[in-house]
Sequence to fold (443 residues):
Amino acid sequence: MARPRTTLSRRGFLRAAASAVAGPYVLTSNALGGGGAAPASERIAIGMIGMGRQAVYANVKAFLHASDARVVAVCDVDAWRLEQARQLVDNHYGREDRSGRAAGCLAFRDFRDLLARADIDAVMISSPDHWHVPQALAAARAGKDICCEKPLTMTLAEGRLLSDTVRRHGCVFRTDSEFRSLGVFHRACELVRNGRIGRLHTLRAGVPRGDTSCSPQPPMPVPEELDYDLWRGPAPWKPYTEKRVHPPRGYGRPGWMRCRETCLGMITNWGAHLIDIAQWGNATERTGPVEVEGRGRYPDDGLWNVLLDFEVHYRYANGVRMIYRTEAPYVRFEGSEGWIQADYGRAGLTAEPASLRTCTIASHEQRLPLKGEKRDFLDCVQSRARTVADAEVGHRTTSVCHLGYLAIELGRTLRWDPAAERFRDDPEADRLLSIAPREPWGL
Fold:
């Protein structure tokens, strides 16, 4: 049975605000439900975990502008980022209410303190990749609904644990990739799923060449605002350097995205967007390929050690083959009667025959849901329905990326059983399912 959503009571909301901010607060008209917003007691109370680049530029804004949600808490191990986030939230609600400062936003250094709050309904996890699963597991066990940045996992085994745990606790879960919400990718998948290109036989997916090499940096003093031990968390210990973490007092692209102990690079990072679309169009979003082989190139040396470029070939049980490579962000579907390609950016949708771009999908045909990823999450928190990209879908998407990574690392064709989530007759590969590839193997 689905767990009923607990809401932040008005008394709990005001008490939480009073404990977070020194000085008086103003009970604003929006807090009471004016201006078209739901009253505070009926809004979904959101806690933001991780207030770095992605959270500030994308994630928090969507929740701040949702009339049925209220960001009530922020959390970050970097005190400067934490204070910037607290001010961002307080200033937003204060400006919106036009009556001075709104009830204040709670601020936490440790995500466990945020999760301990009974008056927080749901969390948005925007932390570095190596923290996604530990924090999502803790959130599920604390009874919170979860929206989590992609890629979900560092290993295949982590994904199975996460999906099973979320299901067991009855949590609403949304894998936070926006590509299913982009019209060009949504339409391509609907056309393919409704047979407009005939029998699908080939998928092609690409990601940008965004990762570069970086010369080694000597150990540096940890900035006073950063709790480096808590930032590192489950990752292996490495001495602090700026380019292993993130730029101090700024939001530039962080170095942790190019270090294998905290992220696998573009193969999972952008891959979690494009592979998700490929799986959606192929109707394999809850399973995976049966065979994979690949090759890739790493930096010769340096601090950053993720793949610079790669090409991976997959085969699915339905006979469809997929080629996944560093090139540009796109997904192309090729069938017996034509092809259709969805590009991220200006190119949009191209097809052969060209009429595919404007053909109509009838009401009785298969329709795929289309809504913003945060709206999908909030609607499902209210209804307790399954999101468009739940934990199982996010796990299976990231698994495809992990399989390609392992095939490159092991240097041979791997045969995969997507039902058992084990390799076929390959105990060496099986041993890597639960070992995060945080150190180069054979380099």
User: Anything to note?
Assistant: Residues 179-373+391-443 form a domain with the Dihydrodipicolinate Reductase; domain 2 fold (CATH 3.30.360.10). The chain has two domains: 10-178, 179-373+391-443.
